Amino acid sequence: MTRKLILTTVLMLSLTTMVGCNSTKPESNTSSNSSNAPVQQEKSDDSTSSVTSDTNTNTKPKEEEKKEETKINKVKLSIYNVNVDTLEPNECGTIEVDENLSLESKLKALSKAVSEKNFNKLPIEIKSIDTKNSKKIATINLVDNGANKWLPKFQGSTGGTLTANTLIENFLQSNNKSNLKWIDGVRFLYNGKTIDYEHVGDLSNIQYRN
């Protein structure tokens, strides 16, 4: 009897030990799973930062496109004076105007520059631009406003020729080598009337661009 009791006690102790060992395994699995979670979180953070950097680089081309759209194309108009000895035109300056301006606006900008550069700011008006025989003819009005300051410039063989050639060369822009859409001819009035002075007779007739 004593031996049986001893064997029974040993068996019960061994079973208890086996049950205790098996119960610890789930805990080790749980701890190993929880240790992997931070690694997955770190990967998701990296992917977020890469997307942010891509969106920042895409803003530069749009800014450059806006700058290109604001650019304005310019065209040069020449300002001429006439050599006293040879009576040939010489370019003494240029102005730049917006290529998209109307022909009348370009002529107005030119008339202002010619008046200031060559004729002591005497008024020069663009009266009209007419089409004759498929050619654009500009009529330019020289205005005195009762002061008769233009009259001395019509006098004398040399003085009258200088005045006529200076006006004709500037408004026809015949020697302008740029790709310029311009008038085909020009004629001049004095205070709204045909110019009837001997030495500037060319101003009263239509002069055509070469």
From TrEMBL:
<feature type="compositionally biased region" description="Polar residues">
    <location>
        <begin position="22"/>
        <end position="41"/>
    </location>
</feature>
<feature type="compositionally biased region" description="Basic and acidic residues">
    <location>
        <begin position="60"/>
        <end position="70"/>
    </location>
</feature>
<feature type="signal peptide">
    <location>
        <begin position="1"/>
        <end position="19"/>
    </location>
</feature>
<keyword id="KW-0732">Signal</keyword>
<feature type="region of interest" description="Disordered">
    <location>
        <begin position="22"/>
        <end position="70"/>
    </location>
</feature>
<feature type="compositionally biased region" description="Low complexity">
    <location>
        <begin position="47"/>
        <end position="59"/>
    </location>
</feature>
<protein>
    <recommendedName>
        <fullName>Sporulation/spore germination protein</fullName>
    </recommendedName>
</protein>
